[in-house]
Amino acid sequence: MTTSLIDAESVLAFDIGSVTTRAMLFDVVEGRYRYLGTGTAPTTAGAPFHDIIGGIRNALDQLQQITGRTFIGGNGKLLMPAQPDGSGVDACVASLSVGPPLRVLAVGLLEGISTESAQNLATTTYAQVIETMSLNDRRKTVDRLDAILRLRPDLIVVAGGIVGGASQSVLSILESIGLACGVMAKDQRPEVLFAGNSALVKDVQETLGSLASLQIAPNVRPSLEVEQLTPAQPALTQVFRHVRARQIPGVQEIDLWTGGRLFPSATAFGRTIRYVSMEFPKKGVLGVDVGASATTIASAFAGDLILNVQSKLGLGENLPGILSMCAPEDILRWLPFDLSADKLCDYIYNKALYPATIPVTEEALYIEQALATQAIYLASRLARKNYPPHISSPLPGLLPWFEPVIATGSVLTQAPKRGHAVLTLLNGLQPTGVTTIALDRNNLASLVGAVAGKNHYLAIQLLDATNFYNLGTIISPIGQAKPGTPIMQVRITYANGHEASQEIKFGTLTVLELPVGQSATLRLQPLHRFDVGMGGPGVGGNAVVTGGVCGVIIDARGRPIRMNNEPGRRREQVKKWYGMLSI
User: Fold this and answer.
1) What distance in Å separates the CA atoms of residue 138 and residue 489, rounded to the nearest whole number?
2) Beta-bridge partners for 505
């Protein structure tokens, strides 16, 4: 590997978010790729600039000051490849999450089958399904035409027709789309992504090719029983770039800088989680990205990725969307103090107006963490619906076994206490069994995915403990008992041979000290048929664990977590949890 890195490329990576634009530099130092620094600046996609290039140049200016390198030439263009004097870079990649959710019309033959698959494909990027069409709705062609003209979607996803299946029914639905595109001005026509019966590609091209920007993707529903979204995602990424280039000035220029390696941040994040899952084939790998524009859940099982992007659960401009998915009381339950629903809603709407604001009081900080907790809670449960049947959970309604969990997003990485980031994830995900939580401390995960196809050495070497911080090992026994009931015996044997034992009671959070990087062996013996993922209810065993910032955390609060119904006692309960993890 060292020989391969002698002529290695330096890589400049941009992450263009709704609030912040970051420019990062990666290069080889002492025979190994290193993360050398980050320049940050406010994103300038909105008023008064309406062009992302301003934010990118400001981030680059800061990166130049940090690294002492020059990236922009006298002509105002990116210096590429790197010059003999050390200026410039050899390659450039970017991830993008800024912009409103793509307005999507999902079209299919049958509402519960191909139309549902079209909707599921849309949820793998920053999109909102605003309407569906199928044979089931029985609308006439003129009514479908009126709906398309009224809604003005950015993207129409068409699915339907299994391999060797219906053809004329699909083409009849496409007539409405063709008619609508034909009467629209060219600059207002939606992108069309056809992910249906491959036998119809020629007919679809003849019907829509001259009327819309058409992308062809593999069939997302090749049979009634099988849904395959991953093969269609590259075409969806291409469509995303086209729409964003039309909506946001500067996107097309950055796409040229990257040579077409501009990815939706969620897609790039999913690529990273998929890659990690190939190193952990026994369990799935779970990725959580709580961003300003969306909350993304990426679940990968031995290389098979299930990506779910919830734009209504972003913590920025889209934050009011959370109120359409839950009641204010569902958010308030995670607070350690009393707050009215009206005040919570006021906070949510003000945050949506000024997404770049940061909490300046302890109360505001707890509200942000409660919002993040509920966003993760909702997003993870929506994602779980798309897991294939062979991915089983220990109990209905719970997450499957995952190892590790990788988390990113400013609300987590910039939490004043790492223990609070852990608690946000524990409450939101409610993981099961034995797992490790790693924090993407430098927010590299999406950029690692963006660069993976260009330079796999860089991607491999950035996935280490320096960049992905071990927050701790989590042990979550599954079962229900009365609070205070002993449910597990734990014995920890440290590397120096010292041993310690502890009885774990139901309803508690327990922290076992284990310094960062040090290993120990845990002997777990569940009681009362509790399950810790070692072979079934009541089955114990040994687990070799590595210490994280928060040591080893035993979450014996049950799954799902049951909170006290009396508001005052519930707040005391939450306050106690925060006290246990004030690390």
Assistant:
1) 61
2) 486
Residue 269: CB atoms within 10 Å: 31
Region of 302 please: left (phi>0), alpha (psi -120 to 50) or beta.
left
Helix (H, G, I), strand (E, B) or coil at 311: helix
Beta bridge partners of 26: 11, 35
Of how many residues is the chain composed?
A: 583
Phi, psi of 384 (to 5 degrees): -60, -25
pLDDT value at position 285? 95
Tell me if the pTM is above 0.70. Answer: yes
The partner residues of 525 in beta bridges, in order of sequence, read 489
Q: What gap in Å lies between CA 98 and CA 109, rounded to an integer?
A: 33
Taking only the tens place, the pLDDT of each residue in 349-374 is 999 999 999 999 999 999 999 999 99
Question: Which residues make Cβ contacts (< 8 Å) with residue 147, sequence separation at least 6?
Answer: 131, 133, 139
461 membership: H or E segment, kind and range:
helix 456-462
SS3 436: strand
pLDDT in tens, 529-551: 999 999 899 999 999 999 999 99
Beta strand pairing status for 102-107 and 32-42? unpaired
